Amino acid sequence: MGACFGKPSEAGTSARDASSTRRRGSRGDGGGGGGGGGGGRTNAHRPGQRIELLLLGLDGAGATTILYRLKLQKFIITVPTLGSVEETIRWGSEEILFHDLGGTDKLRPLWPMYQDGIQGVIYVVDAADRRLVDANRRELRRFYRAAVKLHDAPLLIFATKQDLSDAMTSEELQRELGLEEIPCRCYHVAGCSAVTGEGIHEGIDWIVGEIRRGGSRAASTLRK
Ligand SMILES: Nc1nc2c(ncn2[C@@H]2O[C@H](COP(=O)(O)OP(=O)(O)OP(=O)(O)O)[C@@H](O)[C@H]2O)c(=O)[nH]1
Ligand SMILES: [Mg+2]
């Protein structure tokens, strides 16, 4: 797939076809999301350089479980993250440093403190809990209002817990979260499960691919 240009909506390629992508730059818009607009550019990625990603989500969404699924290739029982956890994993020729931030309401205001050096954002949603859709929409917007340095960075939404019967699909979540209004460079919603491992590698491949080719993007294609 190409860079962050093209059709308003492209089907992704995760397992069970449970993903959807939006590439900014095709709408010619300039509004939505707020957030000032004076933010610095995200660190451009140089080949061989370590990638740094933020891993966010409401408490209990499943962020840390995804992190250790990636690190250990198995499902492990986690404890709630108090503050932040840093883990590095090897991804092909790349090294990725994850900043996994706790998601309780006390910790969410701290998320925007982690902007410097970050090249991509992963936001984890418990797709099986429909009661949290409003809170997820609100917290995503609040985060991006403050995190102006990340408006140039790709956003991966992990719609996790797809192993549970009533989990929302990625298309449903894309609509419900109002992702069109989020001032990120481009986004992708990937259905996944940290229990089965489904969809996680595809999601990481997407964000790493976007970061790799993001360095040459013309500023005019980016919303400020
Ligand atoms: N069924 C199911 N349960 C999951 C999945 N991923 C995580 N869980 C469970 O969800 C709960 C919360 O997981 P965590 O990874 O600790 O959540 P977190 O987002 O890191 O939460 P905080 O650290 O509090 O911000 C745990 O009981 C996990 O076992 C999944 O894919 N499927
Ligand atoms: Mg955690």
TrEMBL record:
Region (Disordered): 1-44
Keyword set, alphabetical order: GTP-binding, Magnesium, Metal-binding, Nucleotide-binding
SUPFAM superfamilies: P-loop containing nucleoside triphosphate hydrolases (SSF52540)
Binding site for GTP: 57-64, 103
Superkingdom of this protein's organism: Eukaryota
Residue stretches of biased makeup (Gly residues): 28-41
Positions contributing to Mg(2+) binding: 64, 81
InterPro entries for the chain: P-loop_NTPase, Small_GTPase_ARF, Small_GTPase_ARF/SAR
Matching Gene3D superfamilies: P-loop containing nucleotide triphosphate hydrolases
A single GO molecular function term of this UniProt record: metal ion binding
Any matching Pfam family: Arf
Family: Belongs to the small GTPase superfamily. Arf family.
Stated name of the protein: Small GTP-binding protein of Sar1/Arf family
Annotated organism of origin: Cyanidioschyzon merolae (strain NIES-3377 / 10D) (Unicellular red alga)
Taxonomic lineage: Eukaryota, Rhodophyta, Bangiophyceae, Cyanidiales, Cyanidiaceae
